[in-house]
Every structure is written in structure tokens, then in C-alpha cells.
Amino acid sequence: MIYKYYIYLLFGSILFSVSNRVNAQEVNAVVFNDSIRNGNVQVFDVRTAGEYNTGHLSNALQADYTKKEEFMERVKYLDKDKTVYIYCLSGGRSAKAASWMRGNGFKKVIELEGGINAWKQAGEPVEGTADVKQMEVDAFRADIGKGEVLVDVGAEWCPPCRKMAPVLEAYLSEHKTVRLLKVDGGRDQDVMQSIKVTSLPTFILYKDGREVWRKQGVYEQL
């Protein structure tokens, strides 16, 4: 009887695993590249920001799957009706993220087989590998020292940051005296630590070096 129980348990686990991946679709690096180059799609990198900055696919958005709060916040700004091409380092994290996305309303999620490791081995191109120097904290302090300065802590690969782009543009067009200073959320870690910013996007308005207001996340207006 106990033996039969374990057989049923094992069989159930196998069925669950198969059903959980029934809608999964993986393609190799060449097909993946052709698809994202020729289609109106979203490219989603679920590695860490540090990994992203060692090289990423063109126009890729980023959210760290291992940071659940960050992932859940950023994934909601993707279009569920538009195909998502997803990848990580070797395929493990992207498989889990894709499975969650399919179970939560995303119509089509395509995984990169073997992750960016396989992509590089196939000789496909990556961007963002240049060793760009961080913004220095002293330089940042000097830059916000005079007048009204709006600091935008964000990144091109951050979905909610992109969502805020037209809002930011509208704010600056209405406030001609305000100067914009961008802080890269994936690179300028020293500056972020000095102004206590831990999530993207964050907007801080300074007047003569003094912080007067701060907003974090997505808003209809600043």
C-alpha cells in the first residue's frame, strides 16, 4: 500500500512538471535573434543588474527574477498581449519567470534556449560591455549645488522608467528653470547609496543642493 502511494506521488509530480511546461516554447540563439530583429516584440532580461551590465541583448528590459519585489513591480509594465522574448544566463531563471508569466496572463513568452551563454557561443551580438566609469559623488554634489535640479535615477532597461519617460518630458516642458540630471541605476551605485535610493525609478528635486521632494515609482505626473 505504501509502495503504491509513492508511485502515485511520483506520477503526480511528473504530471505537474509536464503540465507546468506544456505551453513553454524555447528557441535557439539564431531563431531568437531573427525573431526579435524582425518583430514588434519585447525583450526581457531576468538576470541581475550586475549581470546585465556585463553585456545584454539590444533593447532588452531588465528585472532581477531573484528579487521578487523588483520582478513583480517591473513585469507589470510589460504588454501582456505582445510577445515577450525572455532570457537569463543559462535558462533556469528565465524558465521559471516565463512559467509565471504564462500563468498570469501573458499570451506568448519565448525562452532563449541556453540563455545568453548560448547566445554568445553562437556569435550573436551583445551591447553594454564597455567599461563606463561611475559618476563620482563629489561631481554629483557639485552638479546639484546651484538652481533647481531634477535627479532622475533610472535606466534604459527598466520597464517602469520607460513608462515614466513622457511624464518626465511633460514636467520639464512645464518647468523651464529645472535642469535634468540622470543617474544610471545600474552603474552609479556610489551616488545611489549617498542619496539613499534603492529602487527605480526615483525622482528627487533639489534647490541649491537641498532636497525638496522625492517620488518613487510610476505616476501620472510629477
UniProtKB/TrEMBL annotation:
<dbReference type="InterPro" id="IPR013766">
    <property type="entry name" value="Thioredoxin_domain"/>
</dbReference>
<keyword id="KW-0732">Signal</keyword>
<dbReference type="InterPro" id="IPR036873">
    <property type="entry name" value="Rhodanese-like_dom_sf"/>
</dbReference>
<feature type="signal peptide">
    <location>
        <begin position="1"/>
        <end position="24"/>
    </location>
</feature>
<feature type="domain" description="Thioredoxin">
    <location>
        <begin position="112"/>
        <end position="222"/>
    </location>
</feature>
<feature type="domain" description="Rhodanese">
    <location>
        <begin position="37"/>
        <end position="128"/>
    </location>
</feature>
<protein>
    <submittedName>
        <fullName>Rhodanese domain protein</fullName>
    </submittedName>
</protein>
<dbReference type="InterPro" id="IPR036249">
    <property type="entry name" value="Thioredoxin-like_sf"/>
</dbReference>
<dbReference type="InterPro" id="IPR001763">
    <property type="entry name" value="Rhodanese-like_dom"/>
</dbReference>
<dbReference type="Pfam" id="PF00085">
    <property type="entry name" value="Thioredoxin"/>
</dbReference>
<dbReference type="Pfam" id="PF00581">
    <property type="entry name" value="Rhodanese"/>
</dbReference>
<dbReference type="InterPro" id="IPR052367">
    <property type="entry name" value="Thiosulfate_ST/Rhodanese-like"/>
</dbReference>
